[in-house]
Amino acid sequence: MQPNGLPRFCRLHLKRDFKGIIQGGIKLQYKEVVMWCRVSQKKTNIPVRFAVVVSRKLGTAAVRNRAKRLLREAFRLNKKYILAGTDIIVSPRGCEMLGNVQAAQEALMTLIGKAELLSSSSTQKTI
Q1: Burial code of 44-59, b = ≥16 C-beta within 10 A, e = fewer?
Q2: How buried is 107 (Cβ within 10 angstroms: 0-12 exposed, 13-18 middle, 19+ buried)?
Q3: What is the largest CA-CA distance in the chain?
Q4: Are 69 and 5 in contact, with CB atoms under 8 Å apart?
Q5: Do the beta carbons of residue 67 and residue 58 sit within 8 Å?
Q6: Half-sphere exposure (Cβ direction) of 17: Cα atoms closer than 13 Å
Q7: How many CB atoms lie within 10 A of CB 95?
Q8: Is the pLDDT of residue 123 over 60?
Q9: Tell me: the pLDDT tens digits for 29-83?
Q10: Is residue 26 situated within a structural domain?
Q11: Residue 123 is inside which H or E element, if any?
C-alpha cells in the first residue's frame, strides 16, 4: 500500500527557493488564498513542488494546521494536472473559505488555471 502523503521531492524546503519564487514568480489571489508560482526554464522531468505558508494571524495552531492539511491534500489530488517543473507556494489568508477539501481544491485549481499552469494532457480537472 502506497502512503498518501507528499514525498520529500514534492515539497519546497530551502529559504532561497521560497525567496526566489516570491520575488521572481507570479502572484495571484482567489478569495482568501494567495499563490506564488514559478515554472522552471529547464525542459526536464522536474516534479511539481509545493509549500504552504500560514501566518499566525489566521488563528490558533489547530486552525493553521487544518488549513495546511486541506491545501496539501488538494495539491496531492491534483498534482498530475500541473505542468512539470512548477514551484507553488500557497498562503491562506482566511480560514472560513477552507471548510473542506473540495473548497481547497476549488481555490487551488482556480489559481492554477489563472496562472495557466495546467498541463496540456489534462483536459478535465477534478473538483
Answers
A1: eeeebbbbbebeeebe
A2: buried
A3: 41
A4: no
A5: yes
A6: 15
A7: 17
A8: no
A9: 988 899 999 988 776 678 889 999 999 999 899 999 999 999 999 999 998 899 8
A10: yes
A11: none
For residue 99, give the H/E element and its range.
Answer: none
Reading the block at residue 76, the C-alpha cell is 496531492
Measure the CA–CA gap between 122 and 126, rounded to whole angstroms. 10
What is the count of structural domains for the chain? 1
Q: Which three cell numbers stand for residue 16?
A: 532561497
Contact 21, 36 (CB under 8 A): yes
Amino acid at 53: V
Instruction: Please tell me the pTM assigned to this model.
Output: 0.85
Q: What is the dihedral of CA 72, 76, 79, 84, to 10 degrees?
A: 80
Domain residues for the domain of 105 are 12-114
Q: What's the CATH number where 74 sits?
A: 3.30.230.10
Asked, for residue 101, whether it belongs to a domain, the answer is yes
